[in-house]
Write a structure and sequence with these properties.
single chain; 170 residues; mainly beta
C-alpha cells in the first residue's frame, strides 16, 4: 500500500485587490467545509449563524453547510475538496457581484447573515453574506471544477473597481 496522500491546494491561493482596498478577492477554498443533515434545526433556510468557531447556513430544508471544525453529528460529508470558496470583501463587493449574479444584494433583501443558492456567472453557487468589521463580505462557493472560472469572472467583473490579479505571470 502506498503512503501517497493528496496535497491540499486552493484554486489560486492568492489575493487580488484594488489599489485603494475597496475590493479584495481571496481564495479560502482550504477552509474546512461540511454538509450536515441533522442537528442545526434552529438555522432556517436563507440565513447563516456563527456558532463559536463555526459558520453554519442552510439554503435548503434539512441540509446545512458548516465552515470550521467538524460537527459531531453522524450524518456529515466533508465538502472541503468538493467546493471552491472565495471571499469577496469591500465597499464595492456587492457591485462586482451584481454584474455576474441576478440576486438582489441590497441590505433589505440580502442583509448580513443571508444565504442563498443562486447562479453566479451561470454556475450554481452558494452565496453567504458574512461581513468583516462592518464591511460587506461575501463567501462564494461554487463546485470546485468551476472554481478557476468563477475566480476569473469575478476578477473581470471587478476590473472597473480596480480589482487586479496579483498572481505572478498573470
Amino acid at each position: 500500500m502506498s503512503d501517497w496522500k493528496p496535497v491540499p491546494r486552493g484554486i489560486v491561493a492568492e489575493v487580488a485587490s484594488s489599489d485603494d482596498g475597496d475590493v479584495t478577492l481571496s481564495d479560502v477554498s482550504l477552509t474546512p467545509k461540511w454538509r450536515v443533515f441533522s442537528g442545526f434545526d434552529d438555522i432556517r433556510p436563507g440565513v447563516s449563524m456563527r456558532l463559536g468557531d463555526r459558520l453554519a447556513w442552510s439554503v435548503s430544508p434539512d441540509e446545512w453547510t458548516v465552515l470550521g471544525s467538524p460537527p459531531g453529528q453522524a450524518e456529515v460529508v466533508d465538502l472541503t475538496h468538493v467546493r471552491a470558496m472565495f471571499r469577496l470583501t469591500g465597499v464595492n463587493a456587492w457591485r462586482v457581484l451584481a454584474k455576474i449574479c441576478a440576486l438582489d444584494l441590497g441590505d433589505d433583501t440580502f442583509p448580513e447573515g443571508a444565504a442563498a443558492r443562486t447562479l453566479v456567472a451561470g454556475v450554481a453557487t452558494e452565496l453567504v453574506r458574512d461581513d468583516r468589521d462592518a464591511v460587506r463580505s461575501y463567501l462564494i462557493l461554487p463546485s470546485r471544477s468551476f472554481g478557476r472560472y468563477i475566480h476569473d469572472v469575478i476578477l473581470d467583473a471587478g476590473e472597473e473597481f480596480g480589482l487586479v490579479d496579483t498572481r505572478v505571470g498573470s
